[in-house]
Amino acid sequence: MNSTVDSNNLREEVRAWLTQNVPQDWRQAMTGTDQDAFVKAQRDWFNKLVAAGYATPHWPEGWPGGGRSLADQKIIYEETARADAPRLILFFVALYHSACTLMEWGTQEQKEKYLPGILKGEIWCQGFSEPNAGSDLASVKTRAELKGDRYVINGQKTWSTMAQYADKCLLLTRTGKSEPPQGGLTYLLLDMKAKGVSVRPISQITGDDEFAEIFFDDVEVLVEDRVGKDGEGWAVAQSTLSSERGLTLVELTQRMRYSLAKVAEVMRERGRASDPAIRKELGALIAKVNASCALADQYLLKRISGTEAAGDASIVKLNYARTLREFTKLGMSISGLQGQYFEDFTRGGSQETGNWTVDFMNSYNWSIAGGSDEIQRNIIAERMLLMPREPKNWQLS
Amino acid sequence: MNSTVDSNNLREEVRAWLTQNVPQDWRQAMTGTDQDAFVKAQRDWFNKLVAAGYATPHWPEGWPGGGRSLADQKIIYEETARADAPRLILFFVALYHSACTLMEWGTQEQKEKYLPGILKGEIWCQGFSEPNAGSDLASVKTRAELKGDRYVINGQKTWSTMAQYADKCLLLTRTGKSEPPQGGLTYLLLDMKAKGVSVRPISQITGDDEFAEIFFDDVEVLVEDRVGKDGEGWAVAQSTLSSERGLTLVELTQRMRYSLAKVAEVMRERGRASDPAIRKELGALIAKVNASCALADQYLLKRISGTEAAGDASIVKLNYARTLREFTKLGMSISGLQGQYFEDFTRGGSQETGNWTVDFMNSYNWSIAGGSDEIQRNIIAERMLLMPREPKNWQLS
Amino acid sequence: MSASNTYQRSDAESQLIELRDSARQVLSGLGLAVNEEKVWPIVTDLGWLLVGVPETLGGLEQGVTGSCAFHAELGRSLAAAPYAAATIAIDAICHSTLANQQSLIERFATGEIVTASLAESAVAIASNKVTGTMTAVPSADKASHVLVCVENSELVALLSLNQPGVEITARQTWDTTRRLFDVRFADVALDETLTLASGADAKTLSSRISTLRDFALAADAVGGAEALLEMTVEYLKTRKQFGRPLALFQALKHRCADLKMLISSAEALLNDSLSRVGNQLDGAQAVAMGKAAKYLACSVYARVAEESLQLHGGIGMTSEYPCHLYLKRALLNEHLGSGNYELDIADHFLS
Amino acid sequence: MSASNTYQRSDAESQLIELRDSARQVLSGLGLAVNEEKVWPIVTDLGWLLVGVPETLGGLEQGVTGSCAFHAELGRSLAAAPYAAATIAIDAICHSTLANQQSLIERFATGEIVTASLAESAVAIASNKVTGTMTAVPSADKASHVLVCVENSELVALLSLNQPGVEITARQTWDTTRRLFDVRFADVALDETLTLASGADAKTLSSRISTLRDFALAADAVGGAEALLEMTVEYLKTRKQFGRPLALFQALKHRCADLKMLISSAEALLNDSLSRVGNQLDGAQAVAMGKAAKYLACSVYARVAEESLQLHGGIGMTSEYPCHLYLKRALLNEHLGSGNYELDIADHFLS
Known about the structure:
heterotetramer, A: alpha+beta, Butyryl-Coa Dehydrogenase, subunit A, domain 1, Butyryl-CoA Dehydrogenase, subunit A, domain 2, Butyryl-CoA Dehydrogenase, subunit A, domain 3, 3 domains, four-stranded mixed sheet, 48% helix, globular, C: alpha+beta, 15% strand, disordered N terminus
């Protein structure tokens, strides 16, 4: 069977389904409304996608729509972006991070216990980052002490996406004492309703709260809910982090590309459509946005073909963060004073909140979180250009 | 006496003199001609200025035009820039570096021996920089060995401005052995015609050769031609380097300001005078150029009032280098393909060679020489913002 | 080398430095982004609105340089006060031929609020009645009067805000340190005792008003940028990553150094322009200088704010931490004022 | 996670990689910026001009992707050869309806030089005679023919350069790795056996020619930028200051990383565009893609060249060291091509 024909079939099928199923009013439903309305809108959309098999194309055969190639998954994302459908942000950790970690590392019991719940709409969050740890994952300090058949956890996590809505948590803890930083980490599955867990949403500069802090006060987790061995958490976390395999950036860059039309829109609205200086900036931006799409696409191809090199992922992310900044800044700048007035925006809309100033502020999530631009530059310089690393014992003299 | 009236008088006097005396054809005389024509044009202009007392306003009273305040010196430079008179590049080291070093550190005999020669047109060069030393003056390796009543010198200097024309040289050598880097340096006055001195002009990327390498092969200098004590060279060199006290940047920024008219000119020539995108860039540039002028002016005022702080000089230089880059780049960019064709340019014309592409390439002299942009940033961060210095023993691990 | 390089600070300069230092002390005692209710009584009690007013009208005679020093201090502390708008209006009164000048200045310097637009207005006059909209008017809800420049600069006047035909609408901005309003006039009658200038005089005064606004925004930007960079550098010195203070990483040091250089250049341009224009704010030259100062300072402020947000990492993205307050004020500053600054500067140069 | 992710390189892809690798080896054996006399015989002997030519016409059928791989290699080594101009002209012959296509391609692929303009031309036709000027024509002094696109795309033809009415003027550029000429025609008669297209076909072919030129310049830029960054990083690893290799300074590392990212993005856009357009280079979409690839690659190249000059410090400013050769080629590349790229891209998007 010819794979191009195959792909075209899938593309048409997805496109047709989206035309029928994307709620036309989802932006309104998620703009200026409260959290419940947002969660409901996300859940409705999730259920539709699960039913159609488009939520889990990356799961193995046997699961709804499962067993699809990365190329096919890419088609689904591209079409979702093209249709301006909502992003499944509330379920992303469950569908990718949790599922992929369980598939790769989970016991049969764990898979049976957790995977069906994900399809039913259980929300997961990630408990990796900690205060004052920044991009330095190895400095996890949250303690898990083994007492009989359970771990007792004390500590704090932060920047956990949508943790205030979560049912379960992927938790990285420190169990060892004297090992090197990456050693001594242990990976647990936590029930967010367990005694001693408390969550505090982080109020962001946009007024939104897409992230939360999680506090642990003698929280107990059974040993059977540990993923991998005690001390093997670093390796398990690595596969969690690479679970989406570049698909997110394919989706985001495609969404940015389709959003270029919104720049044209704001140019018209603000009477700047024929301003040559703005048109020139738009022309430059179009080239950069298309380049970001091409980079993300080619990165996915490298993952598919197994030719990914050290630093490739950093280049894609650093580039996306920069282009997104320029993109949102141009929109904001064209908006003029009007753009500086507060307006309601689409909750959890990430880069497409319908408000350029919010989009601009949100763009910093991409240059700061998930390994800041500075960390990406270190990686590119050291692992790709093979420039020397800073000495380990480099301390203030 | 009211100082503003006084200044106005000087300004008018200088302006009138320049109108009478600036050779109208100096650019043509220095464009596409050989080195001799260039030297002759410089020498003629130098003699005129000396006669009028405008070459040495910074020398003490008693010398031609001497004893003027820094504010008056500034007026002379501003007017020279305004009149688009040639810069005295061939005599700058003699008039400032050599003279000020001798005035501050020289013995009576040295002053009598060297100062009159400067006024007669002796050309001096500076022998400070060395190959592979970059901006790191303390790493001077050229050896001077004391043998009886003389030093015997071996080594190499580089990036010495116009050394191929020089009669004398301000030479920084290493005499000590085990002292810390800044120690062990000794400052000598060298006759460029001495046995064992050879000079090789450095061919620059513009095709010009404003700099040269100097090689020393058992060159002898009498102890009486040492400035300061043996081992005191670092301190003497510091006063050489600060001798022009910010005047150069006042002159250069003023010249850049007057040259803004040339951007307008190339816009007209290339039919871009009404291009809004270019006009917008020009508007931004005008603000930046005026800011560079203001920074240089205010730096001079700080020197006059003794309120200079650590890092101030770095800010002025870093800012000038950046603005000059943007300035020349805009001119080059407006020139289009035409600007990429090779054309003769004014020799030693520095930033005003009459060719935007040469000016652009020359702009790197300001971001690289005399302490690169990177060094200036270190100084600003460490001495002004008080951010910690890198540890001394920071080595590749 | 010469002995004749002496420099003496003038009395006026010394006085201004004292005034500014005490303002900084007072404001830093209040804390960042303190609200209008707390700041305004201090502003009036300490006579800050009189800084730029001539001695003959009961002021401190510190001119535009003087009021800009205070704009910078208020920008530094992110104070939420209609100081800029009020000083602009008071300055306009000083430069009018109004008979009751002195009493108006007293009223507005001591409690009653006069305001003005920080952006563009579209207000026309017909049969002595005013119609149109002013945007970005600070504290219009609490002000008794607003300064109005009629289109084509036929007239500059004060209008009472407490009269029929005036509609005041709050326009919440992302910058929560400012309270801006739209003010709409529908056939509002002029009060001739409050007409500041008409005809050619109005053109001159309008031009002075917009230059003053540009300088005020520039000074706010310089003050804010300076304070923010200080905060950022402090943060980098404190915060550790990979066991080292962030301030030790050369890439971050170099970025801070560049920001410092940019701020210094904007500040130098502002100070230089102020000293060159003196009190002559209405000519084409002064207008262009105001525009250059505003453009450079506000674009530098935005650049500093954007870099600072990145340099702070995650904590800068939280509403608890004040980094974003500077960012939002910087973004708003860029969009206040009027016209296309870069183009206007070029137009003036090429004309 | 899925098992079905397999990917096989096609035979054509494998062949191209082999060709490119061998080209790189040959060129690096010659050294940087080697002159035309040395490169051209190799280009023709090894059949590099046939890379993009269809099999049916005796070529290697590697399309535009194929010739771009060679443009990148020549850009990398700063080779002084009219390869881009010749491949553009040969491609135009391939896409003409000329009867003697095959014999012309053989002539021009094996020794006789055909050239074309790398910039804008102003050539008009009247009574079958050609008048006007072509700029930036490489090696016109050695070429027997030049590709001419008449204004308003009425006609695309080859013209012999060895005939009365043709005036060839050398235009020395700062970039000494290219030898460009102005070619002036004064009433030069057309040879109908060399007319490639007229009417609507000429419009289509002209559009193909300019897109091809944009891709060629983009590929040259990507190749040059890559080689220059490698050279710069090597230099930083070798050169020591304050007792440490420069490559250890984080500020410099971060700048190199940014450059690497920029080059990767330009390369990705070029490759993506080439694979999307395939052999369909004449539509508005393809033209816009060519323009975007050219704009991004050439601006990235210039940026890399400027930063590399600074990162090299003094040595980069000497004519002995090759850093400036890349800079000058990058600057020239930015100004070759035609139109205002950013505006054209926006126009296409907004239309």
